[in-house]
C-alpha cells in the first residue's frame, strides 16, 4: 500500500503539495473562517471616532490620541481583552471571568461596554499630574510622551507605534 502511494504521489514535489493545501484552505467559505469584529483599522476608526470626539470635547484629550492608543492596545478591537472584557486600553484591574465560567484568564479590567472603557481611559489620564499642564494641547507627541511615562514599560517604541497609527490613518482630522 505504501509503495503504491509513494509511486502515485512521488512525482509531486513538496511545493505542489503545499500549493494544493493552500488552494484547499482558500476554498473554505469565509463564514467558516474566524471572523474579526473589526476586519480593518478603518472599520474600528469608523465605529469609535464619534466616541473619541465626544471625549475630547469633555476632557481636552485629543481624539487622535484616544483612538491611536485604543488601536494599538486592542489590536483595533480584535484582542481577547477588547472582545471579552471590553478593555480597549490595556488597563489592569478586576474582572469576573472566573464567575462567568470562562477558561480565559486575564489581569485586565473588565468594563460593561466599549464606551465605558473609553471613558475610563480618559478618567485615568485626567487623574495624572501632567494632565492640567497639557489639557487642550493638540500636539500628539507631547501627550504620548507623558502618557507613556505612566502607561507602559516599552515607552519609546509604544509611543512611536501610536504616532505611526495616528499619522498613517490621519487621526488628527478628528481633533476638534
Briefly characterize the structure.
The chain is mainly α and 176 residues long.
Could you name the key traits of this structure?
mainly alpha; 176 residues; 0% strand; Lysozyme
Measured as a percent range, the helix fraction is 55-70%
What is the number of independent domains?
2
CATH top level of the largest domain is: Mainly Alpha
N-to-C span: 72 Å
H/I helix tally: 9
**pLDDT under 50 segments (min length 5)?**
17-33
Relative strand content: under 5%
The CATH architecture assignment of the largest domain turns out to be Orthogonal Bundle
Plain-language structure description:
The chain is built from nine helices and no strands. The protein has helices at 2-9, 14-26, 41-59, 63-74, 80-84, 114-126, 131-134, 140-151, 155-168. It has two domains: 2-32; 41-174, Lysozyme (Orthogonal Bundle), CATH 1.10.530.10. With 176 residues, it is mainly alpha-helical. It starts with a helix and ends in an 8-residue tail after the last helix.
Record the SSE blueprint.
Blueprint: H1 2-9, H2 14-26, H3 41-59, H4 63-74, H5 80-84, H6 114-126, H7 131-134, H8 140-151, H9 155-168
Helix pairs in contact: 3-4, 3-6, 4-9, 8-9
Amino acid at each position: 500500500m505504501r509503495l503504491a502511494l509513494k509511486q502515485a504521489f512521488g512525482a509531486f514535489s513538496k511545493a505542489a503539495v503545499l500549493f494544493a493545501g493552500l488552494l484547499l484552505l482558500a476554498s473554505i467559505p469565509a463564514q467558516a473562517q474566524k471572523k474579526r469584529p473589526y476586519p480593518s483599522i478603518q472599520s474600528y476608526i469608523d465605529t469609535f471616532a464619534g466616541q473619541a470626539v465626544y471625549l475630547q470635547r469633555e476632557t481636552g484629550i485629543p481624539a487622535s490620541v484616544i483612538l491611536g492608543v485604543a488601536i494599538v492596545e486592542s489590536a483595533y478591537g480584535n484582542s481577547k481583552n477588547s472582545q471579552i472584557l471590553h478593555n480597549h486600553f490595556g488597563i489592569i484591574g478586576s474582572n469576573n471571568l472566573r464567575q462567568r465560567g470562562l477558561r480565559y484568564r486575564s489581569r485586565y479590567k473588565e468594563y460593561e461596554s466599549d464606551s465605558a472603557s473609553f471613558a475610563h481611559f480618559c478618567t485615568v489620564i485626567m487623574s495624572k499630574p501632567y494632565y492640567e499642564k497639557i489639557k487642550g494641547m493638540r500636539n500628539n507627541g507631547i501627550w504620548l510622551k507623558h502618557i507613556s511615562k505612566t502607561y507602559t514599560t516599552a515607552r519609546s517604541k509604544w509611543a512611536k507605534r501610536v504616532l505611526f497609527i495616528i499619522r498613517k490613518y490621519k487621526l488628527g482630522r478628528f481633533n476638534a
